[in-house]
Input
Amino acid sequence: MGKRLSVAVQGFHPSSFLSEETARLRELVQEKKIISAISGGVDSTVATMVAREALGDKLLPIMIDTGFLRAGEPERVKERLATSPTSLTVRLVHASGRFLASVKGETTAEEKRKKFRQTFYQILKEEAEKEGCEFILQGTIAPDWIETQGGIKTQHNILEQVGIDPATTYGFKIIEPLADLYKDQVRTLGRHLNLSNELSERQPFPGPGLLVRCIGNVTKEKIRVLKEATKMVETSLAPFNYEQYFAAVIENRFAKDPSLETVSETASEALGLPESEVHTEVFEDRVTGVKGDQRCYGLLAGVKLSEESRETYGWLQDRLRQLQAGIVEKFPDITRVALLVKERRGGGPLSILVRAVSTRDFMTAAVSPVPWKILKDIGQQILKEESVSRVYYDITPKPPGTVEFE
Amino acid sequence: MTIIPVVYVKGQYNHLIVRNLKELGVESKLLPPSVPLEQLESMNPDALVMGGGPQSVRSPNQLTGELADAARLIRQVKLPMLCICVTHQLLATAFGGVTEAAQKPEFGPVEISVIDEGRILEGLKPSFTAWESHNDEVVKAPEGFHVLAKSDNCAIEAMRHDDRDVFGVQFHPEVSHTLKGVDLFRNFLHIVEEHKRT
Output
């Protein structure tokens, strides 16, 4: 990707972007106060810094603790942003109970995302009323609204583009300084604003957080296990510089549709292994994918190889690509394929999925070749959790998968 | 400056085409396919690129409004044109070719074998990796076109008009994982610049 990156830098000029955007913001906001919704991620941090350049103390940064953030994250973000060069005083709004209640009983990705969005903006509305603000600033970037408009997934921070007028629905106007930029351009802008590497190169984290990595029904236990698994995966994979890496959780319930009975056969064919060495199960809960520019809320196949083949095939990239493509081409309802890394017989009712991808702009993503030994170590650690019995590695690129699961 | 608008047919990568063109020094923006011809002409464009989208072109009598409009542009505009993914299929059907549901749809990385560089694929022989996302495919190129590239699953990955600078590609040169996609845009620009001179 080296060549394209240098081209990208040529096409985007952070200093001219900054002067145009700050002028626009001053004109728009005038002397009014404005709330900035901070997640701690690079997008909202950079958006806030752009706005601060323009508006100074009229900007009030707040961070909503949704309960779906990583362990200890809200406090860490607040502390980090308080130091130079950001020097932001972030106010935390604790709302984990409200968010959990709002998604209770919802099992599909879109409904969960919509409920999350509703609660998110309801809270912003209350905060805006409290502070007497008519503007909310957020760190929306291009892929957020492109995916929402294209119907791939409902991003939590998209309203106007889907026909919801925030002014009449919530009583405030939304400002999105980065709406036309891609992730790599936001990072370039962050470096231009002298953000520390820790901030400008920060690992992306979705707005609805662990909610979109908790596949299907949301329970306290699933979220708790996911927080633990996230910590382990992030610690083990951080040294590898993949653009994105994380854990997701799914329940071990499997589809019984007879049309799926030949998936194992297809898998063994694609791998060139005898059928006795390949065992495939298709999970019942659906995951998000994208096929032919269309959202495909499809099934996830979990492939288990016999112990010996698993050691040999563990990370033969080409073979695993054939396995994934072979299954997804043949079964229109399957969007994603994951390979079993480790299991514990008689363990709990949950599986953890590990995902790591390389991507420039999150519009396409390639599966990262995490060394097999590292995956096994991660599996070993995660299986210490009582309620987890299996650990898988997702071998689906985007497309036909997406980076996140819901 | 070279001006190349991109016709937006709701594909999620359409924006990336604009980004690629801008990075190559071209003036570009998204236009809806419903743009009236006079309005398009008033922009003085040097060429047109059409993006992909979620619709299917399989039943030409029931095209979505966007695709019907895009087909109108394909027929009326006489400039150099590059059609990507669903508009590659639309280009084929608009000129009398055939698009059907793919026996083996392609998602993610695909190895593209170049049969004939046909200028648009200059320097890309013998093969390169491109990213794809399609359920349908062109199974018969229209008369007056010839096939430039194929893959294991799909016989017509790229085609061009025999006499005009009109090209169709099934894969996505605009996504960053198609490493050589930028070469294809560069080749297209050379063709456009030459067209401007004549």
